[in-house]
Amino acid sequence: MSPDPAKETKDSSRHAQDGTRHHLSPARTLDLDPLIDDPKTRIVVCCGSGGVGKTTTAAALGLRAAERGRKVVVLTIDPARRLAQSMGIDSLDNVPRRVKGLDDSASGELHAMMLDMKRTFDEIVEAHADRERAAAILGNPFYQSLSAGFAGTQEYMAMEKLGQLRARDEWDLIVVDTPPSRSALDFLDAPKRLGSFLDGRLIRLLTAPAKLGGRAGMKFLNVGMSMMTGTLGKLLGGQLLKDVQTFVAAMDTTFGGFRTRADATYKLLQAPGTAFLVVAAPERDALREAAYFVERLAAEDMPLAGLVLNRVHGSGAARLSAERALAAAENLEEPRIVDQDGGKAGLRNSPDTYGSSEPAAVPESAAVPESPASEPDSPVDPDRTVEQLTAGLLRLHADRMRLLSREQRTRDRFTALHPEVAVAEVAALPGDVHDLAGLRDIGDRLAAGRPELPETDA
Amino acid sequence: MSRLQVVSGKGGTGKTTVAAALALALATEGKRTLLVEVEGRQGIAQLFETEALPYEERKIAVAPGGGEVYALAIDPELALLDYLQMFYKLGGAGRALKKLGAIDFATTIAPGLRDVLLTGKACEAVRRKDKSGRFAYDYVVMDAPPTGRITRFLNVNDEVAGLAKIGPIHNQAQAVMRVLKSSETAVHLVTLLEEMPVQETADGIAELRAARLPVGRIMVNMVRPEVLDATDLELVRGTARSSLAQSLSAAGLGGARRGGQAERLVAPLLAQAEEYAERYTLEHEQRAVLGELGLPLHELPLLAEGMDLAGLYELATELREQGMS
Fold first, then answer.
1. In chain A, is it the N or the C terminus that has fewer CB atoms within a 10 Å radius of its CB?
2. Residue span of the structural domain in which B268 resides
3. Does B228 contact A396 at a Cβ distance shorter than 8 Å?
4. Residue B149 counted as domain residue
5. ipTM score
6. Which residues contact B48 (CB under 8 A, 6 or more apart)?
7. Chain B residues with CB inside 8 Å of A357's CB?
8. Chain A CB contacts of B304 below 8 Å
9. Is pLDDT above 60 for A343?
């Protein structure tokens, strides 16, 4: 992706004018609407570390694209129950279901499905093997463990399902959520690994006795094989090895090769119609993982559209620093203790600023509690509650501002590493998303590319 | 106190941080703990601000009172070669196996074998004794896979034991399972006061219990300080904006008149209070859900400055004060 200098300039000038609002200002803003509207975009893959809102992002993008007129299917891996219910896919049947309740004025459609990895694996077997052989594979103990979700199976099946959905060509856009992998790598590696294993040398050796018979030229292989099977047999126990061999033999004759399938999916991910979105939250670990993912995608020639940064905080009162807010809160709280018996009626306004509609900002140095500007005029209001409450509001604000600057620092670190990556920021929501309205809201925030902040009008 | 402390939790809840803080907390007063990482993410090294950990136990921190924290990043491939060497003196064969892809197979694809190697290594460290017969480590803390996979991960030995009905892997799995299902082990779940992690915690506990794995405690991480309580929030809603503006002005934040600096702060501050109120209610609901799970609950504060080494010691102190060690 080539940077767009004109756009950058426009963005930064907008930021400069927008002084009262505090943003984590990205070098480039990721515009998601053009991406999901473009008929050439056929697959969007959302990836990132666990707990950053990948699934919600995928669902919100899917909904938005559908309401903007595209025929979309969202493939989720492990959605939270209520999110799944909000899309009507709480039954795990491995088939895309049409989501109801959409605004279909643009005549789009949204379908959603939840991956059942065992079912997906079974389906591959059933589709490629005759009934008897399929039954033998499905009943094999090794197969049962493998398909029930050991390392790599979920990743592999997610990609397999993606390939299947794409091959059906029933949707203009497929949005995929990726498995909550232990590391970002697994998702790209697992299909290849499983594919190359199932189609590889080891398997040939394991299945060699049946296929090679007594061919003299293969003698060296047989030596290798007996050493192999001997060792594996020792390790795993003879029965397991036999299960593996039976499984592999059954698979081998029915499949056109796992590697071919894995390679096809891998190529699909590199194809021009595919866009990767790295999802993260403005936290150190999540962004570190995101940076790693950005590098990895580049190394694999996978097309990165940008970074979605979820749960970004903002403030409508960013002019007021944490330090000043705290100092002011202390000002309000102090007189309560000191002047327990004070009877003078407090002025409710600081005279020096009263009447001035735009007083100059109090310099940082004047904001410490002992500041002469505020102390002598500290009100001793009989109604202390208002002051207590105001102090509470100021403390809340101080917390918010500290959070903001922490997020800013984390963000800056990422931007310094990867200034080329466009970023869409999504404001933090107080609660979880449970319905289409919530997803729509997230979609709006995603498309806006920057946090929506509380309005400052009174 | 169980000698093997397994720490799991939904992604993003900070389970590595909590595991590290727990290892530090348990190491105080001259104890020695081993912090074990099983997912190859090098999260421990990043947390302790050191270079990537090798497959080797090395000291990474000293705890107050002369305790020591060792760390180990278990690499399943090396653990398998280790294992082959230990039991079969198969050094050379190990290399041959690697060439054929068998090691790759065994550690990434073979059902559960990888997990047996990981838990097996941790259990070995739990049982290891020095020449004088003392345990090499007082405690082993494992930064385990996330809640969604923890039961399968720990219980995998059962599955392998069922799959490999005889042979050394079978025996190994049985031995490991005996440790994991005993009171020697406690599985803690880290959560946040948010709906999804809490739901996952409840599900995880049910799964662990069904598998008869010993559930330890719930650790609520990143708990934000209570700035305003429910009564305050109610009062805030009932307070005239002009009074708040005057109060802000009195605190030295500018004019209270319409358009004055203090007055213009009122709306955004109130908006933030509304967000806080909504979150406050949600957090209370989630705390109640956690309370019903019937397990000891620990709360760790959100560190305003973000997580660093100093923060880790702070959390360790917090855990000690809450009687976690």
1. N
2. 230-277
3. yes
4. yes
5. 0.86
6. B20, B60, B61, B71, B309, B312
7. 255, 257, 259-260
8. 399, 402-403, 406
9. no
